[in-house]
Amino acid sequence: MGVAKSVARVRATDIAIVGMSCRFPGGCNSPQDYWKLLAAGSNAVSEIPEDRWDHSRFKHPNKKATGRAYTFAAGTIGDIRGFDAAFFGISPREADAMDPHQRMLLELAWEALESGGQIPEHYEGRDCAVYVGISSTEYGSLQQGDPDSANAYMMLGTTLSIAANRISYQFDLRGPSMAIDTACSSSLVALNEALNAIWSGRSEMALVGGISLLVSPFPYIGFSKATMLSEYGLCRAFGSNPGGYVRGEGGGVIVVKPLSAALRDGDPIHAVIAGAGSNADGRTNGIALPSHETQSALIEQTLRKFDIDPAHIDFFEAHGTGTAVGDPAETRTISQAIASKRPPECGPLPVGSAKSNIGHLEPASGMAGLFKAVLAIRNRALPKTLHSEDLNPEIDFDGLNIRPVQELTPLNVEGRPIYAGLNSFGFGGANATVVLREHIEEKHSEEHVEAVPPLLLSAKSSSALQQMAERYGELLRNPEKRDFYDIAYTAAFRRARLKNRLIVEGENIDEIGSSLLAYARGDETSAVSGEAMSANGKVGFIFNGNGAQWAGMGRQAYAESEEFRQRLDEIDMLIREIAGWSLVDVLHAEDAGEK
After folding, report:
1. Alpha-carbon gap, residue 531 to 255, rounded angstroms
2. C-alpha to C-alpha distances, 473 to 130, 228, 479, 485, nearest whole angstrom
3. Which of 187, 205, 204, 186 is nearest to 255 (CA)?
4. One digit per residue, pLDDT tens: the chain, 595 residues?
5. Strand 15-23 vs strand 250-258: parallel, antiparallel, or unpaired?
6. Phi-psi bin for 25: left (phi > 0), alpha (psi -120 to 50), beta?
């Protein structure tokens, strides 16, 4: 077990990402799953499941067909109906009226806090902010088709502001709480607003997220009429024949706090946000058309404001939608602000886009790009941008000093932290940019401890506890990924202690892992489980009178037995600290015999 110590200079504006949770296409229900997909160069784009809506009614290959979409290609996350309402104390009737965006955000918020060792009850009543990037009102629109189904929960369940407010309510967070809608840049604009709240002192910490779920066919129809969607069913970011973008769904939530506070609290630090900013294009040749001039100005202003050398940017996660207008404009932006200032010996600036893997998550796309950039920094490797084998001939990549990443590429940066840039643009002209920095820690080894500590797990239900035991058991099976002392410490002291609890002891780690898996299967095991008593109960001491055969026995033992006297003095010291009175004084009091 080691103690981590930062070796980089901490700036007052540095913000640490201490917690991360996600639901991304391709079965990516954790950052680890997402990295596996990215590193493998996998394509998670398929088609919207038939159970969402009737494809035969709303799809037609003829782009001129009214009321129809020519594609339902998408990166999807599968079931969006499931929700553990009981975990959050929400009734089934209220849960049914809640937009699935709200349901998923609650789960992601809990998972993000837990992944960062931030115990939710510790932040109750504190000025923790919540900012959520979200645009879709489809669920509410669908409910309006059946007015008779409206109940007391409908308006709360379908209003965009409640997506953020419900998180603040659930965890009793008192900082700013708001939903941000700037279309495709919503997540990163929300992040920028959260950072401003922390920098200004209005908040000590923030939960920031973005989410987008494909609930209705009507946006597909609208985007089809604007011919914005790829007829190939692929996001060909920087590739030839770009042809439009592919829609995707999912969400991500991060927990951010000042780097100095994260170091003080011993938090896991995934990356440092070194700077961020947002602006708007103003009037262009069309409200949906980008302006590389204002996009470039935003990046340049952000780098200057936070004193970041553009030559230090090691890679750039682009918005990269794979559109005929967007990609050329963005590559000019990145070149003007960063790549043109790159030292010749470093070669072209590597750029990429997660949209080629999972589609365009629209208001949540900034989270998908941010997670990719953080994971690339942590793994010191750049994932391949798919469908870019043949580059877009309309973009002068050599002249712009930019090169799309075409295979998994190691990030060989020595002597300083890795820096990454990140863009997100809304199709109404709202832009956001973020700069990330690697957090480098120096490990100091401590004296090895031979004893194996017990593992304490808890959950809100017995079935959830069994599932958790199985996950921990599988984790402990892999010697390369287990640091049992850190795992046991985090489980005991950096997680909420819920009602159903399990404690497992063993002579070694393998024995503990086997006991966990046996418990998960329902087999006989040495693990001890049960429901914890209410935390609101009072502690009482009962003295039942047994043990003394005559009055003054304790005084005599104290006077005649050195071991008894030593043990009683030790207990007396503890009681003095807690109760403020002396057990030995009471023993020798004049009225002790009467009592």
Report:
1. 30
2. 34, 47, 12, 15
3. 205
4. 333 344 457 899 999 999 999 999 999 999 999 999 999 999 999 999 999 999 999 999 999 999 999 999 999 999 998 899 999 999 999 999 999 999 999 999 999 999 999 998 899 999 999 999 999 988 888 887 778 778 888 888 889 999 999 999 999 999 999 999 999 999 999 999 999 999 999 999 999 999 999 999 999 999 999 999 998 899 999 999 888 999 999 999 999 999 999 999 999 999 999 999 999 999 988 888 888 899 999 999 999 999 999 999 999 999 999 999 999 999 999 999 999 999 999 999 999 999 999 999 999 999 999 999 999 999 999 999 999 899 999 999 999 999 999 999 999 998 899 999 999 999 899 999 999 999 998 665 555 556 788 889 988 888 889 898 888 888 888 766 568 888 888 888 888 888 889 999 888 888 888 888 888 888 878 888 888 877 666 766 666 666 667 778 888 889 998 988 999 999 999 999 888 899 899 888 876 544 4
5. antiparallel
6. beta
Do 81 and 27 meet the contact criterion of CB atoms below 8 Å apart? no
Q: Are residues 170 and 253 in contact, defined by beta-carbon separation less than 8 angstroms?
A: no
**Diameter over CA atoms, the chain:** 103
Nearest to 118 by CA among 204, 214, 1: 204
Tokens 């109760």, residue located:
579
Question: 431, exposed or middle or buried, with CB in 10 Å at 0-12, 13-18, 19+?
Answer: buried
- 189 contacts 166 by C-beta, under 8 angstroms: no
Per-residue burial over 266-303, b = 16 or more CB atoms within 10 Å of its CB, e = otherwise: ebbbbbbbbbbbbbebeeeeeeeebbbebbbbbbbebb
Q: How far apart are CA 63 and CA 224, in angstroms?
A: 7
pTM attached to this predicted model: 0.84
Sign of CA dihedral 195, 197, 199, 202: negative
Task: Please report how many Cα atoms fall inside a 13 Å half-sphere around the Cα of residue 368, on the Cβ side.
Answer: 36
With contact defined as beta carbons under 8 Å apart, do 364 and 211 qualify?
A: yes
Tokens representing 236? 């060909």
- Contact at 8 Å (CB) between 195 and 187? no
Q: Are the CB atoms for 142 and 216 separated by under 8 Å?
A: yes
DSSP code of residue 317 = E
* DSSP symbols for 126-185: S-EEEEEE----HHHHHHTT-GGG--TTHHHHH-HHHHHHHHHHHHT--S-EEEE-BTBT
Assigned token pair, 442: 């120096």
